[in-house]
Amino acid sequence: MSNRLLPACSILLLAGGRGRRMGGQDKGLIEWHGRPLIAWVHETVRALTDDLLLSCNRNQTAYAPYADRLLSDEEPDYPGPLAGIRAGLAAAHHDWLMVLPCDAPMIDALLLRSLHAIATQDRLHPLMVRRSAQWEPLFSMIPTHLAARLEAAWQAGARSPRQVLLALGSRALDLAEDDPRLANLNTPELLER
Ligand SMILES: Nc1nc2c(ncn2[C@@H]2O[C@H](COP(=O)(O)OP(=O)(O)OP(=O)(O)O)[C@@H](O)[C@H]2O)c(=O)[nH]1
Ligand SMILES: [Mg+2]
């Protein structure tokens, strides 16, 4: 069961950020309990897809072992995670794109299987994790046939993944606000945990 591919699902790991709160470090490559953050996420997702994409804007050589294909943003200067999602949707080989951040090392495969199972009950809409009232577009599933609509939103100036996925009719997967599997490591203090 745990080694089974998620049907029709590409996975995109987002590691294309500036890492300002980490002093400008490339967050996915920061070590946490002896390994880069991206290695923890990679270990969890590797067996789930045969189309593993990774969005990064620097250090391509270091990231290469953690994906089948690397993508980078078309626009310079870090336009935000929607740029990575846009590139991922255009590149994905499968009907669905699962989007995950590079800095959530405690994400687990059971949660990702649930996200996939619930999303694929409905072929039309994205599914986003929601914690209390907070939508989390970087833990999401997007049907790749929505690429053209996302592209239109991008061309119209949209840059917020949350707003775009809501406009595309995203459904919610409700999880507890303090669900440890979703913990994001955004600052050096959090790395001490
Ligand atoms: N492709 C791409 N991904 C991004 C961009 N900005 C952020 N991300 C990714 O989106 C996810 C969530 O972003 P943040 O947690 O804010 O990370 P960050 O932007 O590197 O960090 P801060 O500069 O401190 O906000 C991370 O996995 C980032 O790598 C971007 O401009 N392009
Ligand atoms: Mg950011």
Helix-strand layout with pairing:
Blueprint: E1 9-15, E2 31-32, E3 35-36, H1 37-45, E4 52-56, H2 60-63, E5 69-71, H3 81-91, E6 96-101, H4 109-119, E7 127-131, E8 134-143, H5 147-155, H6 161-167, E9 171-175, H7 188-191
Parallel strand pairs: 1-4, 1-6, 4-5, 7-9
Antiparallel strand pairs: 2-3, 6-8, 7-8
Helix pairs in contact: 3-5
Which key features would you list for this structure?
single chain, 193 residues, Spore Coat Polysaccharide Biosynthesis Protein SpsA, Chain A, 7-stranded mixed sheet, two-stranded antiparallel ribbon, 9 strands, binds guanosine-5'-triphosphate, binds magnesium ion
Question: Could you walk me through the main structural features you see in this protein, from its secondary elements to its overall organization?
Answer:
The protein has helices at 37-45, 60-63, 81-91, 109-119, 147-155, 161-167, 188-191; strands spanning 9-15, 31-32, 35-36, 52-56, 69-71, 96-101, 127-131, 134-143, 171-175. By secondary structure, the protein is α/β, with parallel strands linked by helices. It has one domain (9-191): Alpha-Beta Complex (Spore Coat Polysaccharide Biosynthesis Protein SpsA, Chain A), CATH 3.90.550.10. The strands form two sheets. Strands 5-4-1-6-8-7-9 form a seven-stranded mixed β-sheet, with helices on both faces. It has a two-stranded antiparallel sheet with strand order 2-3. Strand 7 and strand 8 (134-143) form a beta hairpin. The longest helix is centred in the middle third of the chain and has 11 residues, at 81-91. It starts with 8 loop residues before the first strand and ends with a helix. The model has no long low-confidence stretch (mean pLDDT 95). The structure holds guanosine-5'-triphosphate and magnesium ion (MG). Guanosine-5'-triphosphate (GTP) is lined by residues 14-21, 27, 55, 73, 78-81, 83-84, 101-103, 138, 184, 186. Guanosine-5'-triphosphate binds at residues 14-21, 27, 55, 73, 78-81, 83-84, 101-103, 138, 184, 186.
